[in-house]
Protein 1
Amino acid sequence: MPPSFDEMRISGSEVRDHYRTYESWLKAQPQELMRDRRDEAEMIFRRVGITFAVYGAKDEDGAGTERLIPFDLIPRVIPSHEWTEMEKGLRQRVTALNRFLHDVYHDQEILKAGLVPAEQVLKNAQYRPEMQGVNVPGGVYSHISGVDIVRAANPDGSGTYYVLEDNLRVPSGVSYMLEDRKMMMRLFPELFAAHRVAPVAHYPDLLLETLRAVAPAGVVDPTVIVLTPGMYNSAYFEHAFLAQQMGVELVEGQDLFVRDDHVYMRTTQGPKRVDVIYRRVDDDFLDPQVFRPDSTLGCAGMLGVYRSGNITLANAIGTGVADDKSIYPYVPKMVEFYLGEKPILNNVPTYMCRDAKDLSYVLAHLGELVVKEVHGAGGYGMLVGPASTKAEIEEFRAHLVANPSNYIAQPTLSLSTCPTFVESGIAPRHIDLRPFVLSGTEVQMVPGGLTRVALKEGSLVVNSSQGGGTKDTWVLED
Amino acid sequence: MLSRTADHLFWMSRYMERAENTARMLNVNYETSLLPQSAEATEQGWRGLLSISELTPAYLQRYSGFNGRDVMDFMVRDDSNPSSILACLRAARENARAVRGALTTEVWETQNQTWLEFNRLLREGALARDPGSLFEWVKFRSHLSRGVTVGTMLMDDSLHFIRIGTFLERGDNTARLLDVKFHALAGEFFGAGNGKETHEVDFYHWSAILRSVSGFEIYRKVYRNVIRPELVAELLILRPDMPRSLAACINEVVTNLQLVANQQSGETLRRAGRLQADLQYGRIDEILATGLHAYLTQFLARVGDLGGGISRDFLVPETA
């Protein structure tokens, strides 16, 4: 495996062009100052209440289960020519994924053409037969898509971006992208005077525009709401933040009811009709009459209203069939099939363990590969071969053999590193990138996205539930 | 606005107001306990404080005597006591967190900061070191919370429900304070107590009540008179210009209720208006003639009834 791609430096002494101004500034900063700034950031985040809930954790000083996501002071910088290319690729990829979802729930041309195995789609737990034949406004299913991108080193030392996975259900993290920027501007205003950093603060505006654009036909001034599972959900801060920034109601399932084939919310002035629901609740919990009967997070009868076309759900029900890890390998084919274009963004080569040949390769190379559960998320249920002990590998092997179709495997990509301010000073840590792509009447995004960083030395897992932190992401305008 | 949002806002401000009033009562009791007085009188003071909030049985499950340290501990930092300042500040903050999107950033940060700081102060032993400043601190955080609310919130239903919560709670708390304090002095007040010594005790007692509602200077300004119990009662019950009086609180409740009125709130508004009229046209000699305790008991029942009506009309979700 070649050494990781360093985002800031070409070699020990040579700094990449787009980092040059920043690096000379950083060199001049005393460690104590950086430490003070970091403490200041932590204090502000705590006061503002930018926290996430850790499932099953308890705190002694009354703060409940709320934790801060560690914020790193050193930004991840992307030069504008790289971003321009990436943006094109994201636009293309998300458009193809939306076309695929429409196809799957209508004529299934891509299955008939034999490009994606039909049983892989139709027998997938994320496939929702209830959505078959349902028309959604504009044919858009995934209105908010989070596409995880990493950069891996090539043998010649250059780097290549790869899409690691598509998140088309309820991708989260955008509030950290916005808060990290706000924090950086507060802590280091002089850096923004010295750099032309593309702004991101208009994201909530784009989001609202997107949501209004996909209202049910004939609704002139749609009522948009954000549906949250409630304040004990790990992403509650983000739900509240986005609702507030858009100026719409933040609603829980208990606030909603269905009457005469419409969804209403209970207000102090009586029932009010709802048109567009940006839901941050999983499919399974949306409607206890159709999905999980024990769910109190959704609203009974919602699916019926949805099928009648009287509400829009963002994202649509059943998008999971397109971001499933077993479907991921087919995305480049989707781009060619629906758009007649060459895919701009690379996929990571993927072994599907359901395939006997792939499985035997995977079993023989467990120590080198990353193996993931097809439906896993949040860094749970995966094996990072090179970072695991013999015992861990053997334990995982047993799971894999017992249920091979539940797993895929990929070569262990050496994620690129970015200098990060840790206890011992400034040191390289692995990072990824999640841009947020909005699809309404058009596909839009703000430059950059959320950069997540694995704070543990050598770790490749960037998820906040696994000790990951975040960085501000700068797209530098030329 | 969402009924659930209104509900959280209403309770957020109620709990904040309750924390403030608890701090006020504790502070006055604490200061009084520093005056030269008999052990019985001191104990009587702490006992009375618990009975204001109907907490004596709960207290006795955890403590045996009525000494200042235990009562303050119970009322300030005891998690098992839902009316302790700690519990009230937590509830205020939890309610705010549930609807932080409906609050301005400043309002939310004030609530959150109050909660975080209060925990820090307790950890650092502020209660044992200097109870007086801790109580002052709570009072000022409540002032800040009210000020930032009025100073930054859009003047829509959100603000009106916050105001209703504040004044309903305050009216309730002032009535409880009066009831217990007058009750404790029933003997002297309705009896003969003409000796100089009694007069002195009275002075400290009544002025303590006044100070607990920031009313001592107001009393002097309004009456230009020595402290007389019936005037204290009049000030705290009937004066519409005294910001913590029952009349002032109910006036605010009525004003804000009118602003949020909906199709089903007519009866609640009528009852609130009637209570307002009773206070507006009431006279202190009539109230004292019929008995202050009976009057306040009835007032508390009517405030409770108003709270129930508001929940029914606006807050508790109707069934679909």
Note: The interface with chain A takes residues 1-6, 86, 90, 94, 97-102, 105, 108-109, 112-113, 115-116, 119, 123, 157, 161, 260, 262-263, 314-315, 317-318, 320 of chain B (CB under 8 Å).
Protein 2
Amino acid sequence: MNAVPSPASGAASTGIAGADALLSIRGVVKRFGQRPVLRGISLDVAAGEFLTILGESGSGKTTLLRLIAGFEQLDSGEILMGGARLDLIPSYRREVNTVFQSYAIFPHLSVFENVAYGLRAKNAAKDEIPGRVKQALDMVKMGEFAQSAPARLSGGQQQRVALARALVNRPRVLLLDEPLSALDANLRKQMQTELKSLQREVGITFIFVTHDQEEAMALSDRVALLREGIVEQIADPREIYGRPATAYVAQFIGQTNLLRAEVREGLARAGSIAWPTSGAAGKATFSLRPEHIRIATSSASANSTHDGAIRFRARVANQSYGGATDHLEIECGDSQVLRARVANPGPLEGMIEFEFSAPDAVRVREAKGE
Amino acid sequence: MYSRAYKAAVTIPPVLWVTLFLLVPYSILFCYSFWSVSPQEVIVHHWNLQNYVELARNPIYLSVLFRSMRIAAAVTIFALILGYPLAYYLSFHAAKRKNLLYQLVIIPLWASYLVRGYAWKTILGSDGVLNGVLQFTHITGALFHLQNFLQQSMHIHATLVPIRFLLYSPFAVVLMLTHIYTPFVLLPVYASLEHVPRNLIEASHDLGASPWATFRRVILPLSLPGVLAGATFAFVLTLGDFLAPLLVGGPSGIMISNIVVSLFGAAYNWPLGAAISFCMLGLVVGLLFATERLERRWKVS
């Protein structure tokens, strides 16, 4: 396979800071009529980065993508590319290409002509076009379909053509609007892998929109989680999972237990469970992932902080078999129900001693701006 | 499954209709085209090809047919020139006014063809509205003086000279039929433009094509089936029209259907009229067949 060389201006900068950013979104606000869709979005995208914009439907993620592509006009704020205003130039002059959710393949043109469309639009040299189209089609393994009519292609194949068509122009940023959501589960996994390796190969900045948190985690260098038009958190997948900034992030990405605790004198207490914490005193919310709750190994006394493990007794209310791990619902006093994921515990019953490590209880803000 | 009675109930009426009101009259007409008129002005059932030979031999018929086709082509082109941009505007830019404007296009279709014909007669005539305005603004007078000046001819005291060529000319026929058939062109074009997926337009802009290039390479090709349907409407309906030439055409605006009408009327030569009708029918069916094939090819590719 041949790599499309990354544009010279996208010189390798791995930093995330504003000055190095390839794409800078600053205080972007967008309303549809009276309804605010984006309420002040700021984020920087580095050259060569794979950034995922994650959010539920209605969070504004697609609108943000359309603003970058130039299909919508922003109400305030600005978008910069390489330091120059991007939001002021029309979409057809932006060095940005889009892979649409519905592919948007031109039905009246062959696969070859679909891919050549962008080259012709940008007045590429005539003798250069066949080679570049072939290269792009080979890259997505669609070389043999060059003369096919798009209507004869499957969804996955159309997806590949859409990808080749968007990459052939060598954009500085490639926008992908839930490109895999129309594919079935197996094909989707395969395309995820291919997409990731393709991105490494071409070195083009990818901005990928999805509502699927697993997809986001698997593909991205960084994930920006959007909620009702606001960036809830932007971080790499490990951090966003391990150190969620807000209760919403903790719940949206993976499963979690939210513990509403009272912090006093370096000790957090939620119902019958207490653990040491370094944060400020007062009411606080903690996120504790189900896989961080274990069955206690030795029978020390409850709530002991000995060897760093926090122990508590709880009644197993529900156990469901899940292959490698079992999912438990456990009740520990005060009708507080926690979810735990435990590796092959065998059948469990009655009161059992559980434990977790204090640092795994991550203090989160209840909501953004709190 | 449907019962036999149900199938019969839905099949028989249209079949009966087509047989009684299309196939039978056409067959009779077809027979007429091979008969002839005796010197005593009686139609004799004497089978021959004389009528068709006459059509090919007499240049009158061919020249009128060609004029009809020229008029039909002109009407088609003008209706497209008027209808396409309006349909484009309706589909892409009218936004909230879309429904209102759409209704404004439809409403003229409710007015009788004859009423609209007479309206044009009133507008274009020597004492008509158009000449009235032109004379009021002294445009005709100026034109007349200009002409006189150029010809360096005698001095005439007439600043109120009407333009006579407006009415009773092929121009008037084209004008009236363009007015009447533009909605027939606009509607299928509008429908096809409405069916152009909007994300294809975004994709085109995204790939670097300017709005004009996008129109030329995406919107226009995808709307061609509508253009073809509308153009076929306008061409076929104009080709068979005989009222517009009658109302505003005058002798120079005669079309082929007027000849058919007179052959079935005053001239009393039904066989020749039937022969012309069948040539026309063949022409139109051939045209429809060709456009149908063309449309199918565009749809596949």
Note: Chain A touches chain B at residues 69-71, 90-93, 96-98, 100, 102, 104, 106-108, 117-118, 121-122, 149, 165-166, 169 (CB under 8 Å).
